[in-house]
Each structure stands twice: as structure tokens, then as C-alpha cells.
Amino acid sequence: MTLDYESALVNVSLLWMLTVPHEFAHAWVATKLGDDTPRREGRVTLNPLAHVDWLGTVILPALTSLSGRGFLGWGKPVNTNPARLKGGRNGLALVALAGPASNLVFAFLLAVVTVLMVRIAPEYAAFPGKGVYLSLYLALFNMIPVPPLDGSKLLLAARIPVAIYLELARFGFILILVGMTATPLGEWMSLASLRGAQALLGLFR
Predict the structure, then answer these.
(1) Which of 60, 107, 125, 152 has the greatest number of CB atoms lying within 10 Å of its CB?
(2) What is the domain extent for residue 164?
């Protein structure tokens, strides 16, 4: 098996870069909705070290990228207290959606950067171009309705029983892993992200 070191380095670098605004968005929206938990825990910041989960942001994405069999990673989750959020569970849903929304914004910005790089320094265009794809992929991945991903908070907003949510959370990582490896889910998200990236880049050409 050939190990793809270049892909691993690029993926980990981009994931870390995109994780920062994603987690910051969660923390900022939670703070605006009245929960000071993220501020007390030092998460309302753009400091990359505040949002890194060494297993999810570095080790696992590096290993999965090296193998060339997909890509899996995450940032350090932002803790929130739904009891302090304006709107309760609805507020929690807004906090959850803030992360994927930031990925969509950054996909747009990176598309602009990529097109500019193609025109003035084509040799550097591949990095932000890969970022467009990965940012869209992260937005889709995080909307999977399985704890601890952002999409699972929408289940709470939909008023599913907390007991069911906690039961899902017990097996969350296994469910995500099975869904990504034993079903077409990962392939579908990858294809959707690729087409979305192509559409965004085509928009600015």
C-alpha cells in the first residue's frame, strides 16, 4: 500500500484551518444567545490551539488520508448549556447550525481565493481549491444527525426524548464509522462536495 503523505499534510492543514472558524462560530453564537460557557472555557477566540482535538483534528485525519481510503476528522467540541440559551432547544439548534454555516461561508471565500491564484500564481491554486471541497464536505458531514455531530442537535430541537438522544450518543462514533464505511454516505457526500466546489469555482471564472 502506498502512503500518501502529501495528501495527509494538506488535509490536516486544511482541516485545522477550517475547524477554527467552525468552532468559533458555535462559541460566538452561544455567547450572543446568553450562554457564557464558551467564553469561560476560552473558546470565543480564533486561536487555533483553543479548538484543536489532537485525535480528531490531527491523528485520525492524518491516518485516514495516508491510507487513501477516505477522510475523517473533527475539532474540539464547544460546550454549551441549553438552559442558559435564549430559546432553549431552538437556541441550541442555532448554535449547532452556526458551525456548518461558517464552512459554507469559507467555501465561498476560498473559491474567490482559488480563482485569483489561478490568475496570478497558478502553482498555489491547488491548496485553496482543495479547501473549497473540504469546507463543503465538513458542512455536510457535520449535519449528520448522530451525536456528537452538529446535526444531532436538531433532533433535540425537534423535541425527541432526551433518553433516545443519550442512547444514540452512546454509540455515536460507531454509527458514524459504520455509516461512512459500510454505506454510500461517504461517497455521496464526497461527490456532492466535489460538484458544489466545481459550481462555486465556475461562478467566479
Answers:
(1) 107
(2) 5-204
What spatial distance separates the first Cα and last Cα of the chain, rounded to whole Å?
38
Active site residues: 23
Task: Indicate the pTM of the whole model.
Answer: 0.90
Q: What is the pLDDT of residues 72-94, one digit of tens each?
A: 788 899 999 989 999 988 999 99
